[in-house]
Amino acid sequence: MNHTTKILIIGSGAAGCTASIYAARAGLNPIMVHGLQPGGQLTITTDVENYPGFEHAIQGPWLMEQMEKQAAHVGTNIIHDIIMSVDFSQKELGRPFTAVGESGDSYVADTVVIATGASARWLGIPSEQKFSGFGVSACATCDGFFYKNKEVVVIGGGNSAVEEALYLANIASKVTLIHRRDSLRAEKIGQERLFAHPKISVIWDSAVEEFLGTENPNSLTAVRLKNLKTGAITDVKTDGAFVAIGHSPNTELFKGVITLDNDNYIVTEKGSTKTNIAGVFAAGDVQDKIFRQAVTAAGTGCMAALEAERFLSGH
Length: 315
Ligand code: FAD
Ligand code: NAP
Prior knowledge:
Helix content: 10-25%
Strand content: 25-35%
Mean pLDDT: 95
Structural class: alpha/beta
Bound molecules: flavin-adenine dinucleotide, NADP nicotinamide-adenine-dinucleotide phosphate
Shape: elongated
Order of helices and strands: EHEEEHEEEEEHEHEHEHEEEEEEEH
Number of helices: 7
């Protein structure tokens, strides 16, 4: 099937939904393509306490459900598909952009907003893959349930790691946070909660060398740690390990197509969502390695839709 639109929005997280809301209200009849994770990263968390407008914590999945409903209500055509390839070459001036979905459908658009966000990063050691799904996870809200009254470790020192540790402390009997340095980069409020929690302890200056366990069936039993200051190696017994070391932008699709920086984030003009291709805009975590918050993703989603509207009226 062939879809044509004035504005194609790739991704349905906070950035994609907000771009859709603004584009639909501007009469652009947007198409928003869901991708593999409808609603984006906030659908894999629980409490959200810093999205403005709510006195008490709200649930991430609920917030994204509301955003999508709002986008649909104002007239966004939301399509369950994953964009597999794009052609932004515009061989002839004014030729629309094209994208092809996993479904085989093609999308022809006058403007594009890329809002493909980011995905969990892994340590990249072979045993991590071996025990992935068998004790090693990157999502506490998805897999924490399996560790009721068991012992778990969380690897990382940012907001995600601290939140995962606090979440798991409600389920597991013991949580150990493992961090490669001697201080956390997470917000102070999270750190205070973590340090005060009776079930949580921290191992500092340590990196995971290996995930250890039994085979047939694979089952994690311990993590081997190296103290980065002393070089000492220790095995810490655990039933589960949650890797929470940050996220990488979902830009594989755009390599060689659009300008990316050294960390593969889409480069946008200062104070704008414009990419190096006129008519293609980028919003949210895919172009933001500094703030990476739901509210900033929503903010840049709004900017992208407004800039696309201006681009269309100028052409
Ligand atoms: P994402 O939410 O990553 O969404 C990307 C979208 O793009 C997804 O819908 C995906 O399916 C789609 N997509 C990707 N590739 C394709 C493709 N090829 N075709 C079509 N679609 C595609 N922020 C806060 O402000 N407060 C919090 O409390 C908070 N908690 C968090 C907890 C966790 C565990 C995590 C991981 C993040 C948290 N964040 C929080 C950060 C926040 O979730 C992100 O900043 C925000 O989700 C970014 O929105 P986004 O729309 O840019 O991208
Ligand atoms: P992050 O802030 O980039 O933190 C990643 C952590 O993992 C850092 O502590 C880093 O160590 C560590 N790390 C990175 N690579 C590692 C490796 N190979 N081995 C061991 N440790 C490694 O990522 P994040 O915590 O996922 O947060 C991402 C963004 O989402 C942030 O902007 C964050 O504020 C936001 N977020 C917000 C909330 C909230 O507002 N409540 C919740 C979750 C996430 P170093 O410290 O040594 O670099």
